[in-house]
Specification:
By secondary structure, the protein is an alpha/beta fold. The chain is built from 12 helices and 5 strands. Strands 2-1-3-4-5 form a 5-stranded parallel β-sheet, sandwiched between helices.
């Protein structure tokens, strides 16, 4: 399983932001950590999600701040990680281009070029993903960790939520939060049965926890598009059931995320 590219999007145009979000969520091996039109909020997201790549619009007229201020703040933060910076802009000033490159931008996409598209930007990032990962960890020493445990937990929780959302697990269902908890417990390597731990946490019976998780999975498999399910859940299913048990489901996603992040 290939490592997923975590992307932070900084874009002030709502329509363009939505196009980019759709492209990222429909693309294998890429996940959208967060999207914002505020350069100050973007710095908070960098520290929280530690993205591998950042798509940066320079002129945030409809939001707050600007891309150059973000690049300066990112440089001043002196993080151990080195995210790849892809500038995505309507600006055509060579003076501005020279400045953003001086501040650490790796590549500049002009929105005026005839073949520009949101999908083209994402495809470009995935094409060079091996180089992006190498750059990302270039300043991390073997003795250092680029994130605190609380940051890592937030990042992995966000990843789990993205995976559940893609296959149609209803965020409003009780089983949704139980599934997130269960996957996190398995990732932590806890030897106790995760249903017992969750039951104690929420003061419920083991049976009700198991039932809520299975109901959430069953509804997703009955209501979501089959092609989407097959694309994003690739484990072999029993022909008799045609959907995973809650145990199979939890361990599938725990193994996926452990391969990518742990």
């Amino acid at each position: 399983m290939e490592k997923e590219l975590i992307i932070l999007l900084i874009e002030d145009n709502p329509a363009e932001r939505e196009d980019m979000r759709i492209c990222i969520e429909a693309t294998e091996n890429a996940v959208l950590a967060a999207a914002t039109d505020n350069s100050e909020t973007a710095m908070d997201y960098v520290k929280e999600y530690l993205p591998h790549a950042i798509i940066l619009d320079l002129e945030l007229h409809m939001g707050r701040g600007n891309g150059i201020a973000f690049l300066q703040a990112l440089r001043d933060a002196s993080l151990d990680i080195s995210p790849y910076i892809l500038v995505n802009t309507n600006n055509t000033s060579t003076v501005t281009y020279d400045q953003v490159r001086e501040l650490g931008a790796d590549f500049i996409f002009s929105k005026h070029q005839s073949d520009y598209s949101a999908q083209g930007v994402i495809t470009f990032l995935l094409t060079i993903s091996d180089s992006i990962f190498s750059k990302y960890y270039s300043n991390v020493s073997p003795q250092s960790s680029p994130e605190a445990p609380s940051q890592k937990k937030k990042r992995i929780t966000k990843r789990i939520q993205n995976e559940l959302n893609i296959i149609g697990i209803n965020p409003k269902s009780v089983g949704y939060k139980y599934l997130i908890d269960a996957i996190m417990i398995v990732l932590d390597g806890t030897e106790r049965n995760y249903c017992i731990i969750i039951a104690e946490r929420y003061k419920k019976s083991n049976a009700s926890i198991e039932r809520a998780m299975q109901n959430a999975i069953t509804r997703a498999w009955k209501t979501n598009d089959v092609d989407t399910l097959c694309k994003h859940y690739t484990a072999r299913l029993s022909p008799e059931r045609a959907m995973p048990t809650q145990t199979e489901f939890v361990h599938y996603y725990a193994n996926m995320i452990r391969t990518d992040y742990m």
